[in-house]
Write a structure and sequence with these properties.
It is a single chain. By secondary structure, this protein is mainly α. The protein starts with a helix and ends with a helix.
Length: 162
C-alpha cells in the first residue's frame, strides 16, 4: 500500500479547508456551466475578426484571439484540466480585452459599443463560472428589487411635485 487511509483522510480534510476558503473564486469555482463562457468566446472571436486593422493592431488582435482559442480548448478538455484552470484563463482574457479596449484607435462608436457589450457578457459568463449560478441569480433578484423600490420612490416624488 503506497498511501495509508490516515494520509487520505488528511488530504481530504485539507481539500475541504481549501475549498471553504477559496470557494467561489478562480481557484475553486463554484459553477460548472461552461456553455455561456464558450458562447462568449465564440462571440469574441467573431468580434475580433470584424475589428478593422485601423481600430486595433493586428498583432494585438491575434494575441487575444489566441488566448480565447486556448480558453476554448481548455473548455473542451474540462474533465482533464478542471474548471479552476478555465476560470483563471478567463480572467487573463478579461485583462487582455480590457487593455486592448483602451487602445482602440479609431474610436468608432459602433466598434466601441460592440466591444463594451461583448466585454460585459464575457465578464458575466466568467463570474457565473467562478461564483455559481445561485449566487449570481440571488444578486440579480436583489438588484431587481432595489430598482423597483427606486422606481416607486421616483414615481411618488414625481406625483407629489407634478
Amino acid at each position: 500500500m503506497l498511501v495509508t487511509q490516515e494520509t487520505l483522510d488528511h488530504l481530504a480534510s485539507a481539500a475541504d479547508l481549501l475549498e471553504s476558503a477559496l470557494g467561489g473564486t478562480c481557484s475553486a469555482p463554484a459553477g460548472s456551466n461552461l456553455e455561456a463562457l464558450k458562447e462568449s468566446c465564440d462571440t469574441w472571436l467573431g468580434l475580433l475578426e470584424q475589428t478593422p486593422d485601423e481600430e486595433l493592431a493586428p498583432s494585438l488582435r491575434e494575441e487575444i484571439a489566441a488566448q480565447i482559442r486556448h480558453l476554448l480548448w481548455l473548455i473542451d478538455h474540462a474533465p482533464l484540466f478542471g474548471t479552476a484552470r478555465i476560470s483563471r484563463e478567463a480572467t487573463t482574457v478579461i485583462g487582455s480585452i480590457a487593455q486592448a479596449s483602451t487602445v482602440l484607435s479609431g474610436q468608432d462608436p459602433q466598434t466601441g459599443g460592440k466591444w463594451k457589450r461583448g466585454f460585459i457578457a464575457f465578464v458575466a459568463a466568467s463570474t457565473l463560472l467562478a461564483t455559481g449560478a445561485t449566487q449570481l441569480q440571488t444578486a440579480i433578484e436583489a438588484g431587481s428589487g432595489v430598482v423597483k423600490e427606486i422606481t416607486q420612490v421616483v414615481e411618488s416624488v414625481s406625483g407629489a411635485t407634478g
